Amino acid sequence: MCISATAARAFKYVLQGILLSSEGEKLNSMSLMLYMFPIAVIALLPVTIVMKPNVMSVILSLARQHQYMWILLLVTKHTSRLILQVTKKMKTFQH
Question: Helices 69-77 and 81-94 meet at what angle, rounded to 10?
């Protein structure tokens, strides 16, 4: 599973590189995200629901505990890639 996940991630990065740099159909990063997001949701949502059946109750519980969670998610949507990487690193340090 680990090898197949690594291979799939490598394939995704190569494909993204081609799509972002191709002269014929050059996409910007936001357009690429627009196309890749629905595919990721369709692929990962069923797996998440099967492996973590109480995920929605956990999300709602966290939202009740941290009233500003939705505001932070909205702000994160409008920030740069650097801020997202820093946030991700800080999240890993907290756990």
Answer: 140
